[in-house]
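Intended use. Records like the one below are meant for learning the mapping from a protein sequence to its folded structure. Do not use them to infer anything beyond what is encoded.
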Amino acid sequence: MRYAVNTHLGELIHYAHGMGWPLISAIVVNQKNVATGQMEPTTLRGFSEAARALDYPVEDEMDFLRKEQERVFAWANGS
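Structure written out for the chain above:
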């Protein structure tokens, strides 16, 4: 099941990018990481690789994740 979710999250990244939205899958984290927003290393790597494939400049993966999470919450709040 986990691998099917990865496919869906990849599709969500492409959809959000195409719509001009922030990468909303940035806020999809494991239950144990909800308070911190951190992603597991393999998840972060996959998220970053998907962003790079769409030409996002990802140098520091954790920094990119944090900024994208901030963009998601601002976008969701209408800011």
